[in-house]
Amino acid sequence: TQLLEQSPQFLSIQEGENLTVYCNSSSVFSSLQWYRQEPGEGPVLLVTVVTGGEVKKLKRLTFQFGDARKDSSLHITAAQPGDTGLYLCAGRSGGSYIPTFGRGTSLIVHP
Amino acid sequence: GAGVSQSPSNKVTEKGKDVELRCDPISGHTALYWYRQSLGQGLEFLIYFQGNSAPDKSGLPSDRFSAERTGGSVSTLTIQRTQQEDSAVYLCASSLASGRTDTQYFGPGTRLTVL
Q1: Which chain A residues are Cβ-neighbours of B45 within 8 angstroms?
Q2: Beta strands A44-49; A100-101: pairing state
Q3: Which of A110, A64, A54 is nearest to A89 (CA)?
Q4: Using alpha carbons only, how large is chain B's radius of gyration in Å?
C-alpha cells in the first residue's frame, strides 16, 4: 500500500499570506494530482503532474513534482478567503487505475 | 447531466438496517469509483467499475458492502446490516477512462449516519 503523507494537517492564516503544503511518500508515482474540496461538495481537480521536477502554475497556485516523483508541493501566494478548503493529493503508481489519496490539508484563510 | 449526482444527500439509519446509495455518473464516462471519507481521513477506495469488465472490489471493507453498475451507467452501493463505524461520507466519481492523467469528477457525496 502506498502511503501519501500530507503536511500540515491544518493551516489557519490571514488573507494575503503565502503558504506551502506538502505531499510526501516513499513510493514513486507515475502521476500526482491535487484536488480542492469545499464543505458539502466532492473534490475538484486542480492539476495533474507527471514529470519529475515539473512545475505548473494556476494563477496564484504553484505545483511542483519532486525530481524522484515521490513528493509534491502546493504553494499559494497571497491567499484569499476563497482559497479556504481541504487540499488533497492523490498519486497513481505504475499502471494502477486506482489513485491513493492523502488525508488532506485543511486550509482556512481569514479576511 | 452536467455533473455526477448522488442520492440521497443525507441518510440517517439505525444500526442493523440496510441502505442503498445511488450514483449517476457523467454520460459517456466508462470508469466509476466509490470512495468513503471519514472525518479527518482521506478518501478510502471502495470499488471500481470500468466498462463491461469485472469490478475491482479490493477496497470493500467487509462482505456487508456490495455495489453494482447497471447498463454501464447508474451505480448503487449497498451496505447491509449497517454499523456505527459505517458512518461517513460516501463519494462517487466518474472519468472518461482510467489512465494516469484522467480526471475524476466527483459527486457531492452521501452523508451516512448510523445511529
Answers
A1: 98-100
A2: unpaired
A3: A64
A4: 13
- Mean of pLDDT values over B74-97: 96
Which chain B residues are within 8 Å of A95, Cβ to Cβ? Answer: 100
Q: Encode pLDDT of A37-65 as tens digits.
A: 999 999 999 999 999 999 999 999 999 99
Distances (CA, A) of A77 to A19, A74, B49, B87, B104: 7, 10, 39, 37, 26
Does residue B36 sit in helix, strand or coil? strand
> CA B59 to CA B22: how far, in whole Å?
18
- Min CA distance, A16 vs chain B (Å)? 27
Does any CB of chain A come closer than 8 Å to the CB of residue B25? no
Asked if the model's pLDDT at residue A2 lies above 70, the reply is no
Interchain proximity B108–A41, CB inside 8 Å: yes
3-state secondary structure of B66: strand
Q: Grid coordinates in use for A84? A: 479556504
Cβ-nearest to B42 among A30, A98, A102: A102
Distance from CA of A14 to the nearest CA of B (A): 23
The owner of cell 439509519 is: B13
Closest CA to A91 of A3, A22, A32, A45: A32
Q: Is A3 on the interface with B (CB under 8 A)?
A: no
Q: Considering all CA atoms of chain B, what is the largest pairwise distance in Å, rounded to the nearest integer?
A: 40
* Residues 75-114 of chain B whose Cβ lies under 8 A from any Cβ of chain A: 91, 93, 98-101, 103-109
Please say whether the beta carbons of A11 and A102 come within 8 A.
no
